[in-house]
Amino acid sequence: MWSIKPAPFAQLGAAFALVMVLAGCASTKPATIASAKPPPPALTPLDQFKPELEPSLDRLALTPHPGGVLSEAQKAVLRTLAASLIGREDAKLTVNVPSSGGAGTPEDQTALAAASFLSANGVRVDQIRMARYEVRAGGAPIVLSHPSLVAKGPDCSKGWDDYAATGSNRVNQHFGCAAAANLAALVADPRDLAHPTGEQPADAARRTMVFDKYRKGELTASAKDDQASGAVSTAVK
C-alpha cells in the first residue's frame, strides 16, 4: 500500500534545475481551482438546470523502469496528458516521486524521463514541478497530478411533478433537468461550460478561391466524386 504524503523535495538532477529557479521552491500543497460563481437566475425554462463545475485533482501513475525507459503504453498516456495541458495557462503538473527513490534509481530516472517527454510534446517547462512523497514500502509508482474541473449534473431522480396536471399551464419544475445531466456526462472538456472554446483562424486561402469563383460566375461548391454522387450501385440487381 502506498499513500501520497508530500515531503521535502530533493533536486532530481540538472535537467530540471531551471524549473526550480523559475518556480522557486515547489509547494507540496495540493493545487486548487476556484469554484465557479453561482449561476444567475433562470431566464427561461431551459435555464432552470445547468451542470456545475467542481474542482478535482487528476492523477496518473507510472511504473518505474530501469534506466527510466518509458514503455509505449506510458508514452501514449503521456501524449494524451500533454495534449490536455497545452494552452492552459493555469495548469500546473506535479511529478511526485516516491521517497524510496534517489539519484540514479529507476524512480528518479523514470520521473525525469516522463517530465522530459511531456516537455518534448508541448508542455512548458515552467508548468512542471517535481516533489517527493512518502511511502511505507518499495515499489511505489511515479504519480503525475494536476488540478482539473469535473462537470456534475443535477439529480433528476426525485420530486417529479404530475405531467398530466396542466391546468395552470406552467412549465414542469423538472423541465430541462435530464438535458443538463446528459450534458454534464457527455462534455469532453468541462471548461467549455464556463466559457466558449477559442475559434481557430479562418481558411483565408479557401475563402479567396470561393470569392474568385463567385465573381467569375463559376460553381463555388466542391467537386463531387463517385462516393458523394448518391448513385445507386449497379453491382447487384
**Helix/strand/pairing class, anyone?**
alpha+beta
CATH architecture: 2-Layer Sandwich
Q: From the alpha-carbon coordinates, what is the Rg to the nearest angstrom?
A: 26 Å
Which blocks of ≥5 consecutive residues have pLDDT under 50?
1-34
Helix content: 10-25%
Number of strands: 5
The share of residues in extended strands comes to: 15-25%
CATH class category: Alpha Beta
Helical segment count:
5
Domain unit count:
1
- Rounded mean pLDDT score: 77
| Intertermini distance | 67 Å
Strand order of the largest sheet: 1-4-3-5-2
Give a short account of the largest sheet: 5 strands, mixed
Which outline best applies? flat
The fold-level CATH name is 60s Ribosomal Protein L30, Chain: A
SSE sequence, one letter per element = EHEHEHEEHH
Going by CATH, the homologous superfamily would be OmpA-like domain
Overview of this protein structure:
- By secondary structure, this protein is α+β, with helices and mostly antiparallel strands.
- The chain has one domain: 2-Layer Sandwich (60s Ribosomal Protein L30, Chain: A), CATH 3.30.1330.
- It has helices at residues 17-23, 72-85, 106-120, 177-186, 204-216, and strands at 6-7, 52-62, 93-98, 128-133, 142-152.
- It has a 5-stranded mixed sheet with strand order 1-4-3-5-2.
- α3 links the parallel β3 and β4 (128-133).
- The longest helix has 15 residues, at 106-120.
- Residues 1-34 have low confidence and may be disordered.
